[in-house]
Amino acid sequence: MKYCWYASLVLALSFASARGRTSAAQLTDTFTRWLDHPAIQYTTAEPTDPVARLGHELESGRVVLRSNGPSGYLRSLLDALNIPVESQIAVFVPDSVQARRINHDNPRTLFFTDNVIVGWVRGGFIEIAAQDRQTGVAFYSLDQPLIGFDHARITRRHDCLSCHYSYSTVGVPGVLSRSSGQFSVDHRIGLESRWGGWYVTGALGSNRHRGNTKIDDLYSTSTPTAHTSNLSAFEGQFDWTGYLTPHSDVVALMVFDHQMHMMNLLTRIGWEARVAAFEERTSGAQRILTSGEQTDQRVSMAAAAVEVVDYMLFIEEAPLAGSIRGSTAFATRFEDQGPRDRAGRSLRQFDVTNRLFRYPCSYMIYSDVFSALPDTAKMAIYNRLWVVLSGQDPSPRYARLSSQDRQDIIHILQDTKRDLPVSFLASRR
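The structure corresponding to this sequence follows.
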């Protein structure tokens, strides 16, 4: 959260990574300086995310967290935020503000839902990140009770932005997943390049990845072995006393990799819409780009929507090499959240054989941050979705979406989204 050992590389490496992508990636390829913009007010606006709300409940005494064993308030906090223990993933790269505590024998664990991530490492404190509906991801720590107080306190942390506000977070306060050799990871990166420095548990068959291998050994071999790629639990790898479960479920990891970048894209397109609307209402002030130079050119909603929708539809998703199975009930709990259409289909249903999801459209379309997007941003996304799903854009890049995929996604959205534009509703079966 505060300035970590690799922070000096953040802007340089993430800038280089961003510039290596397609020219259509206008959000990823630009930065913002809008933390204190009147339309954003990241540091001054009262946050409305689930963690901020929990903080108020702790202060009032309506909710009380209980400390239990070496993990302290962790389980009680997860229960209060409705975060399943099965979502646990574990990283042993000495990363974050608690880098000195993290190693192969003492990994940092992360637990997550669609809008909250909780981090814990044995012997350390609890870190929390939560996505606000409008301003981006807010960062917090859960502090031990002060003298004279009988409850834990949640404290907002702006110092986390030294690492969590960069090109890799799409130019907004955000979150990301990393792997050794890959500065930023999402579903477009092949498994063979993912999870260096992470524990990975589950049955991956012939799929190979960089997890479960000590950092020093990662660079002594270029081909991960079947043993390191298929680990049923990290029990036996180290003394896991105090940890809630000996798992770092591969399906949870894959969902995490997809979700982090999706969260950032949705925040960014919302920022673009809010700043544009503010400037149109006022003096038409010029937008400041990464270089700090003034320009009257801003990222259009149409261009931003192309990037968001391409990612939302998994257009560049790296293929899987056969069936994958997690080591916990994470997949079942995730799928049970729905919503489902009249045929029982859901965007949360997994494939994990050739691709991550059975119906390749992100479940984050149901998230609070999507629901709170300004109409200009939301309609731009919906319009672009319709152009792609209806086949009006014949570009070869969309050939991976079969006609059945497109039809299934349209039908699921028609039954589960109440704010679809007329274009979707006109084709309702």
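The CA atoms of residues 9 and 163 lie 9 Å apart.
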